[in-house]
Amino acid sequence: MKKDNKEKSKNQKSGASRRDFLKNSTIAAGAVAAAMTVPGVSAASAETECQPTNPYGPRPGGGVSLPDYYKPWPAIKNNNFYIPGQEILPKNEMRIFFLGSTPWPPTQLQSGTSMLVELGNGTLQPRRFFFDMGNGSIRNAIALQVPAPLINDIFLSHLHSDHFADLPYMYPFRAFSGGFTPLRVYGPSGRTPELGTKHMIKHMKEMNRWHEESFNVNPMGDGLEIEVTEFDWKEENGIVYNKDGVVVRHWPRSHVKDGASAYRLDWEDAGLSFVWTGDGRPDELSAKYGKGADVFVSEGTIDTPTLSSYKLGAPPELWEYTIDIFHTMYYAAGYLFKQAQPRIGCICHYEWSGAGLDAESVAEVRSNWDGLFMFGGPDVQVLNVSKDAIWAREALMPEGAAPPSMDPRWLLKPGEKLPETMTLPEPTLPREKQQEQFVRDLEIDPHKYYPPGEYRKPIQKWPGITLNPREMLAARGIKVDD
Ligand SMILES: [Zn+2]
Ligand SMILES: [Zn+2]
């Protein structure tokens, strides 16, 4: 790393000392980039060449890259970690969870790419938007106490499976958990109808036919239905969603094959915005339509093909070729941030290269961007955003505890009052219609395994279930005010 500093000094021109200084900075991945000198920079060079200036103005003891608006506020209950289910997101505040952050390989630290954008409404259930749903990301949403029936509005950037692999897994269980209303999925068209989101969803459901039919012995309501909004991938800044003061726009990206998109969410009431580039090469449209966003999230790849081949074995040319037709290297992510000038630039969808390459990773971003920056990983990083401030933390993830999966309040339409009784939807495919009698006859007589006092006659025909929601909630220690 010492040698690295000497290398970089050749780039120091035109008094751009701040940026060069920042290039030599290091952070723990996932933390906001508080720059720090690398041991080994000589005092002389530090004094003469690296005169860091905080781009946001001097603030002794505040770091050389952090703005005044990087600070916690009272809605943040713990400044160092986020405890799921304990923080009510106030009105007009945004919270982003980086649920998953890698394309490949999945590791103990990184699931497949997904971001959950929450818009505060002063309750424990904010308005939610999911951007991509990569492998393993739903596990993290559940650990964050997001109730499965309330998962909805999923925006797919493109149809690489690292961006939607948890969708076929999630949707039947969402319905099973009481998500009785249709799921809404948004995504691009492709060159031909067979390459678009609608086609993928149709065949995903076909792939899940056995699963869906078997689950239809249970109440599913309309939960297995998926409403797909497929937009024209070529459209520039087209509107894919416009409801209750939230507009989501999209534009095409160059990602090896037609049909990749970027998104921008604008929350008009709060005046806050979020950009997710999805995958692709650094492009003019992302700089243009991402301009001035509060949070700008780019994908990113470290651009060290030679080092990557040492560590991972594939030939450098393969790394180069893959980056150069698919992806945005960290230098270019920094360049996009510089063009778009967000309040914070983030990189999600990156393969964490280990602590040994943290310094290089940040240095690449810093070659072009000296503003606020963080990696959206390792999983799960949390970003709170208000008009005045931004704060980043790690989520304290429970290893086993999931939220309640069915709550009568989640079965209501917005504004609807809790009724005296609620009847669960009728299952549509009883077991007799999908299972041979002989295989049921092979089941062991329950008398043989129940302790004598514990025998319970199995319920094997749908009994019809009517809930008393207040009693059901009271049993869980929850009192509902009407
Ligand atoms: Zn990807
Ligand atoms: Zn991709």
Describe the protein:
It is a single chain. The chain has three domains: 2-48, no CATH class; 81-395, 4-Layer Sandwich (Metallo-beta-lactamase, Chain A), CATH 3.60.15; 408-475, no CATH class. It has 14 helices and 18 strands. With 482 residues, the chain is an alpha/beta fold. The protein has helices at 2-9, 17-23, 43-48, 137-143, 167-176, 197-207, 209-215, 284-289, 305-312, 316-326, 330-340, 358-366, 437-441, 469-475, and strands at residues 81-82, 94-100, 114-119, 127-131, 154-155, 183-188, 226-231, 238-243, 246-253, 260-267, 272-276, 295-298, 344-347, 373-375, 381-385, 390-395, 422-423, 466-467. Residues 1-31 and 33-44 have low confidence and may be disordered. Strand 8 and strand 9 form a beta hairpin. The strands form three sheets. Strands 1-16-15-2-3-4-5-6-7 form a nine-stranded mixed beta sheet. The chain has a seven-stranded mixed beta sheet with strand order 8-9-10-11-12-13-14. A two-stranded antiparallel ribbon has the order 17-18. The structure holds zinc ion (2 copies). Residues 158, 160, 255, 279 line the site of one zinc ion (ZN). One zinc ion binds at residues 103, 160, 162-163, 279, 349.
